[in-house]
Amino acid sequence: MTLKSLSHFAGASSTLAIVSLMYYIVSFSLGWGPIPMLVMSEITPVKARGPASAISVVVAWTSSFIVTKVTTLSVLNKPVVRVFG
Question: What is the CA radius of gyration of the chain?
Fold first, then answer.
């Protein structure tokens, strides 16, 4: 199989990538995504909610970014079996 013979999959693969990204964003938003903000608003006093909200959002998004980058780099550099198994 050559690269030229796979060129007809180019449109389908880009559509699959966009659909997969949309699925990830929706499932993250409906799952564990908003939990840090919810917990933060329940356990902090009213006067500290502004700064605590900012810190909570920065930590949550930074953690998500790090996990996404580490997983992506691990999968690209090693076989999936060695990363997740």
Answer: 19
Contact predicate 59/36, CB 8 Å = yes
Looking from the CA of 41 toward its CB, the CA atoms found within 13 Å total 5
The token pair at 76 is 């690209």
Residue 60 identity (one-letter amino acid)? A
DSSP 8-state symbol, 2: -
Residue 52: CB partners within 8 Å, gap ≥ 6?
40, 44
Q: pLDDT tens digits for 2-17?
A: 555 555 655 666 778 7
Q: Quick one: tokens of 16?
A: 């699959």
